[in-house]
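Can anyone check this?
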Amino acid sequence: MLYTLIKWPIRIALQCYLGRIDVRHKPVLTTRGPLLLVANHPNSFLDAIIIAASCRHPVHFLARGDAFRKPWHNTLLRLLNMIPVYRLSEGRENLHLNEKAFAASKAILQQNGIVLIFIEGISVNSHQLQPFRKGAARIAIEAVNSGVPLQVLPISISYANFHGLHKSVWLSAGEIQTATALLSGGNEAQQLNYFNEQLRIQLTERYIQPPPPVAKTLVATALTLAAKILHAPLYGWLAPVIHRKTKGTVFYDSVLFGALLLLYPVYLLLLLLLLSYFQLPVSLIIVFPLTALLASKAK
């Protein structure tokens, strides 16, 4: 329910937060389940947000387990269709919980749902693919062994940069294939290797390397300056705080987006109160989000 309620606000927020969002092979993102989305993972939770927002149907996705430690975090993230999965670095004592993650993924696929997994198993701010883990292949094997007519869709995602507003993002979907075609081989180990080999080939082919940055036009520079001035009371202090709190991690973009998603409506409400107090037209409030949107799209 919560996932459905916030999907459209997130889509609108992404249009203001990001610059160009270039989605390639978009029609396949309307595909129904049972479907396993397999993607690279360069920018933490923002990857999942962008991919899920680009899909027509609800997406469940596996996320790092340490984000679920606090009870209210656990409740909120599960309402957002997230499934906790643990790495060895997050404690050997938690690894047995991954069996629940795989079981939950299989149950969703059995109900014709969609599951997103980041095949690298770790997020690294990089324009290169990282080594692949076995989780995606294992989910595919368990689903096929349970009689699920599973399809697999590789998706590559890349960013112009990993720190800042109005960056360009490229989302490139591949060809939908049956899981059985990607699990050729004899024993399970051979199937795992073949699955990862095929997905690496396809993600590499689909991956879009960001072009070199170009200087902004005078109009774009003016709009960016105007947006910064209008939003300085919020963004001016929020961005440095989040940068300091997330220093040395890959979470800056994700945390900044989440914070703005929550705080921007509050900021607009306070501005409305100020406009009303000074007896100014409340319609002026539209200038703030409109300027942010125009600045994000200007070149």
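Reply from J.R.: I decoded it. Residues 218-297 form one domain.
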